[in-house]
Amino acid sequence: MTAETISGALVMTPGIKHLDTLSAREFSVEYGPAAAGSEIVILDLKLVQFVDSTGLGAILDLVRDTIARDARIAICGAQPSVKVLFRMVQLAKLVTIFDTRDMALAWAGS
Question: In sequence order, which residues have a C-beta less than 8 Å from that of residue 77 and are 6 or more positions away?
Answer without folding.
Answer: 44, 45, 46, 98, 99, 100, 101
